[in-house]
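Troubleshooting: if your tokenizer reports a length mismatch, compare your output against this known-good record of 304 residues.
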Amino acid sequence: MKLLTYKTNETESRLGFLHNNQVIDMEDFGEISNFPLPSTMLELIDMGYELVEELNDMVAETDQKLLDEIAYEIGEVIFLAPIPKPRKNIIGIGLNYTEHVAESARTLDTSNELPQQPIIFSKPPTTVTATNTEILLNRKLTNQLDWEVELAVVISKKGKYVSKADAMDYVFGYTIINDISARDCRRSGQWIVSKGQDTFAPMGPILVTKDEIENPHNLNLSLTVNGIEKQNSNTKLMLFNINDLIEDLSTVFTLEAGDIIATGTPAGVGAGRNPQEWLKDGDVVKCTVEGIGSIVNTVKEIAP
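Known-good structure output:
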């Protein structure tokens, strides 16, 4: 399913899904199907991935006229982040593409040796923002605002010491994250100030359940700034794939339903360019991942 969190001029945040180029409200669909359904993404994930198959069958068996009665046209809704307020920090993976390791070593004083284990950091829930919103640039904190397109994985259920072979059983679906980074805000090698400022995790536009993505390790991903391409790669080039990451992370700490893993970015970030490029007020950043769509955000300089 292609799931989304949305609102309209008349409603607050709601859960829905895309069907025949329309937005179907999940709770309303439950009512016409006599099958109680939730109004938030996290509640849906908590009900278990098995529900997705049931929902697909229910939708296929429902008369389109009934769906039309509870549907919105896509242009009528405002897309929110699929999980607007995660329960925990987003789990970030650093230096997970070979060429990004090389460019970071040249310009960000990181090691030029390929990591032997995943490099883990986190982004607070307050970093999350939706497509068509603003990325805030606080000049009191940074003059080196950078972009990073990433495939994000959403976990379906609690897992500890998960093997690589079983890892995909713990995936609910996928979305896009732009891991915005303030390159001049690292503190003694720690990244959370660089990665964790408000609005530094644009996410969306939808959450695609894993049955819709045949192979998450062969997806094109790209990023443009003001229409000019900056990143273009494929998830097959990840050093540690999703199976590797879930095995490693679940060894370190328990993964839980609704957890989000941003799997790393390929080469082409602003810090790695010659000369270096930084985002400025008014810049428009577009991130695209095959099979999911695109998110678009505009940089807004603020004066706190």
